[in-house]
């Protein structure tokens, strides 16, 4: 899918560092990925793996003292690393939309959703009149499936339920017709039946408008039902990437395999769940070699010394010596 | 699993209403009415000794309120909660494990003191030496090191913190544990560790669990029976395998359909419409009729009773 079109987003060897008084923490290390127009790339990993950090780096929202130390982020071929705050503000919203986990904190409680949508529309499309912006706001609310948009446009965020609020946030992200949407855990705060509505909506809008979506989540189920390709992160690095069906059905990296096996299956009940012992290392204590080696059952001497690089596997690409010449 | 037919806990016609009215002055000045929230409505179930019963449902369905009622954190408005006599003859003692291991541990206390608090408060051990010994034993049971007792909660990951919460809950040797979403704040690989630990403890210590969760796949792994709640009422209750093989209530079916399934993803399904109505103004008749594909005129006026079925399940639906 990514081959026949120019990718909408390209992240090349991205390194994000947080210098502090004890030294430098490397939050993202050599992350490369791309998303084609109309494609949904799922990014999964445990908390602290760097999945949200990747999204924030693309949005230019890294909190100081965090900074992009090396690597590049290209939006339709144009580098957006090192843009000034003013220039970045024009990119955010206009070209990259963002959806965050908690819909209540993403909306201003003091303004009606119509005025918030209108402000965003007029900000990014300066030639729009107030009346046009309002019409467009109603259109957007209709598009994201809010019943009675003509009335709802004048309501305040607290008058909406959680699921409806997340729809409003999606409408906000779509307001300027961005090319790329970064959705960071968009359904985590919602109930399952609402979650299904929101992921379905995201998928439909992405396909209809040709918007590229980076869907950051810890929920493999959401990835399985929404994404086209999936990227698995561990301790700040990308360790496996490939088409969603292949990676989930036939994962190559032992971490992905462990992750898939530890999900309680809906189909059958087992006496004991497969667990990955231990926890992900902290950023200041990443072991040499492969960061997963202390928890890996298949680790060999090579894994404790040399860092594996992404290499082709039957399912896509994985950073594991098992698929690149053996672990011994 | 050592499940017996004796009930460890019986909950009968449990009701809980919260007064969510505006303040007295606001009522007086603006003429607002008193407003009551019926959080738990006529809930009846029992938990067999050594078994695990789960309550599932979406936010606002009253499942956590039931957990808090059972542990005595709230007083019921009506109905009864009966614990069977435990080993000592006194009613079974219950303890609770909370959802968020980041909020439920005091950040300024060392882990050994967090775990020792119930022992000291309830005077379960006579000397400091005995307390230290028991704390070490508890840390071992949940898979932590004795040296971990000297650390503070922030030095632990989420999964390890949940282990500390479990050790604290076990300190007073309870026979009944109420677990309110114990793994929903954890990553899946860690969730598996905690669920396995809880299953092991159940076998080794003969614990009985009341498990609260919104995650049906976790619930299926843990429980013998499942009760599905919707707007404060149980709409279906059945043995785990029966519920998954033959869900009868349309709400249970909706829940089962909407869980994202890693193995058989339904990618291009119809988007199911509707949301949970406000519990402040539940719809008349069957509260689910606003979202139900089977709803008829009868459902809008007449509330279906929870009826027993031949396979041992209970369902509240006119057409199930």
Description:
The complex is a heterodimer of chains A (328) and B (320). Chain A has 328 residues and is α/β, with parallel strands linked by helices. Chain A has a domain at 96-175. Chain A contains 11 helices and 12 strands. Chain A has an 8-stranded mixed β-sheet with strand order 6-7-8-3-9-10-12-11, sandwiched between helices. The radius of gyration of chain A is 21 Å and the shape is globular. The model of chain A has no long low-confidence stretch (mean pLDDT 89). Chain B is α/β, with parallel strands linked by helices. Chain B has a domain at 7-93 and 174-227: Rossmann fold (3-Layer(aba) Sandwich). Chain B is 31% helix and 22% strand. Chain B has helices spanning 24-30, 63-70, 111-121, 128-141, 158-170, 188-205, 216-222, 240-245, 250-258, 297-301; strands spanning 7-19, 36-48, 52-56, 78-83, 94-97, 176-180, 208-213, 225-230, 233-239, 307-308, 314-315. Chain B is globular, with a radius of gyration of 21 Å. The two termini of chain B are 32 Å apart. The model of chain B has no long low-confidence stretch (mean pLDDT 89). Chains A and B meet through helix 7, helix 8, helix 9 and helix 11 of A and helix 5, helix 6, helix 7, helix 8 and helix 9 of B.
- Helix % of chain A is 25-40%
Largest sheet of chain A: 8 strands, mixed
Strand order of the largest sheet of chain B: 5-6-7-3-8-9-11-10
Can you count the beta strands of chain A? 12
Average pLDDT rating of chain A: 89
Identify the CATH homologous superfamily of the domain at 7-93 and 174-227 in chain B: P-loop containing nucleotide triphosphate hydrolases
Write the layout of secondary structure elements.
The complex is a heterodimer of chains A (328) and B (320).
Chain A: E1 9-20, E2 23-35, E3 40-44, H1 51-59, E4 67-75, E5 78-79, H2 85-91, E6 96-99, H3 103-106, H4 113-124, H5 130-143, H6 149-152, H7 162-174, E7 180-184, H8 192-209, E8 212-216, H9 220-226, E9 229-234, E10 237-243, H10 244-249, H11 254-261, E11 311-313, E12 316-318
Parallel strand pairs in A: 3-8, 3-9, 6-7, 7-8
Antiparallel strand pairs in A: 1-2, 1-4, 4-5, 9-10, 10-12, 11-12
Helix pairs in contact in A: 4-5, 5-7, 7-8
Chain B: E1 7-19, H1 24-30, E2 36-48, E3 52-56, H2 63-70, E4 78-83, E5 94-97, H3 111-121, H4 128-141, H5 158-170, E6 176-180, H6 188-205, E7 208-213, H7 216-222, E8 225-230, E9 233-239, H8 240-245, H9 250-258, H10 297-301, E10 307-308, E11 314-315
